[in-house]
Amino acid sequence: MERGQVRISILNHEKYGVSCGNFNPNALLKNLNFWLDEFSEGLDSDVVLVAQDDSVFCHHFDVELWKHFAYVGAPWSPTFHPFGGCNGTCNAWHTWTSQCDGLTNDHADEHMPRFCTSNCDGIQGNGGLSLRRRSWMVKALQTCSPQIDANEDLFFSIILYGLGATMPSNFEASLFSVETVFPEQTRAYSTLDNITVPETIQKLWGTGTGMKLYKRMHRHESYITNDSTTENLQQLYTIPLAFHKPWLYHPADIINGAQTEKECFFLKFVR
């Protein structure tokens, strides 16, 4: 802060319809004026990290490897998705297009074929821990009505897919953050081969260091202590760069297990 690299802004709660006692991120983040007025062009980055107090970073995060995406949250299993998966999400977009301006026929395609392919399936939300480009938030809000009935993470995720923004696959998003599904549990993972997975890891976690971290996570001996053996270790997962309230969706033996303890030490302090 003394070097001028950190600026603290006190939000006008009346302007955005929020309060400390009843904070509503939807009212704030779906307000175009927030994205236009609270940032200084030429001074602030176009890339914004949203991190609520129930999220935590586990590993080094190099924003340069992620900033090409318009929005990155965490993938959702269709079980937890309010629109019931790919088809329901595509139908929602088709309904929303009547509240959007200037769409081409390709944008308004009710099937959203790019969204619904098996190796994409980018159903994601997790606005409480997300990386976004301000320019795309502005474009989404200038194109489609903020009155569309959806939480802000779904609002932006679906609209940005519909507008053709650069969005991650669900496997790529899961490398950034996990809420309901780990990378190995994403639909896209099952279609990836032994070449594509390492390439994706290196692209988003860094060449060399990313694969070293990934390989460590998939060796049981990485987590053996003096009082443990491979027999009492749970299944190993790819631990993401960050977690957002995973304790709501995953059993205690994973959240409190030896692997998570080592790979995400600070997780236990945010529950």
Characteristic terms for this protein:
single chain; 271 residues; alpha+beta; three-stranded antiparallel sheet; three-stranded mixed sheet; globular
Q: What is the average of the pLDDT values?
A: 87
Determine the fraction of residues in helical runs and give it as a percent range: 25-40%
Low-pLDDT parts are: none
Radius of gyration: 19 Å
* Quantity of strands, as a count: 8
Sheet with most strands: strand arrangement:
1-6-3
Hey, roughly how much beta strand do the residues contain? 5-15%
SS-based structural class? Answer: alpha+beta
The total count of helices amounts to 12
Give the end-to-end Cα distance, rounded to a whole number of Å: 28 Å
Tell me the series of helices and strands, N- to C-terminal: HHHEEEEHHEEHHHEHHEHH
Gross morphology: globular
Largest beta-sheet characterization: 3 strands, antiparallel
Give a verbal description of the structure:
This protein has 271 residues and is of the alpha+beta class. The protein is built from twelve helices and eight strands. α9 crosses α10. It is globular and about 60 Å long. It starts with 12 loop residues before the first helix and ends in an 8-residue tail after the last helix. The mean pLDDT is 87.
Task: Provide a short characterization of the protein structure.
By secondary structure, the chain is an alpha+beta fold.
